[in-house]
Design brief:
Strand content: 25-35%
Distance between the termini: 48 Å
Largest sheet: 6 strands, mixed
Order of helices and strands: EEEEHEEEEHEEHEEHEEEEHHH
Helix content: 25-40%
Shape: globular
Structural class: alpha+beta
Number of strands: 16
Strand order of the largest sheet: 13-14-10-12-11-16
């Protein structure tokens, strides 16, 4: 995929794709083009796909990059190849078809259509929303707080989860915050959300000057919101390894607990797509245990 070409026909996993607007600069601050983003997804796919496969995906679409029009989309966009799997998903507003990103070709095809940011639920289409197989906590700093504060809170949450028999894995969100995942033996979404809510409440009780569980922005200044609600069956979370549509192309990237403990500046845990590819090449998928079955804990 050459950045010097406006249009190119490629083959990904035996699937023919016509890639367009390859010269389009999506991130003016860094000069990253659409071709570079497509190349990133094609390369990172082996690490990313275990965390998206089988899950009905939603996308933030922004064909011209974060500086243009963007919207959150559940329905497949026009032009999706017929070989991309689409599954029916029941929502409050009715049943919609949603793409499942199972293969590198799916990932590249969606990004080619401007669906650059991938979001998935904590359950698979095959098992359904009553069988969540992972828990997620989204640590989102308010004004006056930052990723460093999130890291300190995450370390305590790790201890609480461990005491309950659950293993936490950190992923920087690609924005200002941090996601914590824990693999689960399948459990109903309501039970997972209730547990996550109680856990967030315990943290707020321990650190009332630092933690909130309310979305109200006026309460969040200088504090970190522990968003437990992304465990609801109707909610999704930015998928590990997805590019985030910010001014600069940061990535939702797995990190180690040593990196979390050592973090003294948010920039230390902010990664470009190229840096993430280097990390994967050096260390593999740091989040691999999340997609496995051995480390799944039983919900307390």
């Amino acid at each position: 995929m050459s950045a010097s070409l406006e249009r190119q026909v490629v083959e990904v996993e035996g699937r023919r794709l016509t890639l367009t607007h390859l010269d389009r600069v999506l991130f003016p601050a860094t000069g990253h083009t659409k071709a570079q983003v497509l190349r990133y997804y094609a390369t990172v796919a082996p690490a990313m796909l275990p965390h998206t496969a089988g899950r009905p995906a939603s996308f933030v679409r922004a064909p011209e990059g974060p500086g243009g029009q963007s919207w959150f989309a559940k329905n497949p966009p026009s032009g999706v190849p017929s070989w991309v799997r689409v599954v029916p998903v029941e929502h409050h507003e009715g049943v919609t078809g949603q793409v499942v990103v199972d293969r590198a070709a799916d990932l590249v095809a969606m990004a080619n259509l401007g669906a650059y940011e991938v979001h998935v639920p904590q359950w698979t289409a095959a098992a359904g929303p009553e069988a969540h197989d992972r828990l997620v906590l989204d640590l989102d700093p308010g004004e006056g707080a930052d990723l460093v504060v999130c890291c300190r809170i995450a370390q305590r949450l790790r201890q609480l989860l461990d005491a309950d028999g659950l293993t936490a894995h950190p992923v920087v969100s690609g924005g200002k915050g941090l996601h914590l995942y824990a693999p689960l033996r399948p459990a109903p979404g309501r039970a997972v959300a209730d547990y996550a809510h109680r856990l967030a409440g315990r943290m707020r009780a321990e650190h009332p000057g630092l933690v909130v569980v309310s979305m109200t922005r006026s309460q969040r200044r200088g504090k970190v919101l522990i968003d437990w609600s992304q465990n609801a069956s109707a909610k999704t979370t930015a998928a590990p390894y997805t590019v985030r549509l910010r001014d600069r192309p940061a990535v939702a990237a797995p990190v180690t607990w040593d990196e979390v403990a050592a973090c003294a500046d948010a920039g230390e845990l902010t990664f470009t797509p190229e840096e993430v590819l280097d990390r994967v090449a050096a260390h593999g998928d740091l989040l691999a245990p999340l997609a496995g079955t051995r480390s799944r804990g039983r919900l307390p």
